[in-house]
Amino acid sequence: xxxxxxxxxxxxxxxxxxxxxxxxxxxxxxxxxxxxxxxxxxxxxxxxxxxxxxxxxxxxxxxxxxxxxxxxxxxxx
Length: 77
Known about the structure:
- The longest helix is centred in the last third of the chain and has 11 residues, at 51-61.
- This protein has a 3-stranded mixed β-sheet.
- The chain contains 3 helices and 3 strands.
- The model has no long low-confidence stretch (mean pLDDT 81).
- It has helices at residues 9-14, 16-24, 51-61, and strands spanning 4-8, 28-32, 38-41.
- The protein has a domain at 4-41: YefM-like fold, CATH 3.40.1620.
- With 77 residues, the chain is of the alpha+beta class.
- The chain is elongated, with a radius of gyration of 22 Å.
């Protein structure tokens, strides 16, 4: 079960390195502001991006006039 820590925004900003370490250790930090809004701070796992995903992002970000599925005329004339 995940441990929960409840803090104020002021405390969170002052002691951020401590709460960052707690989040990396699997704890969840709930931050409450003056208006009563709750925010959740926790670490997430990062997964490596595959080459196919990276190429898809690059191809999709360039407007070449060609369909994404074909690279005819892409980058070379």
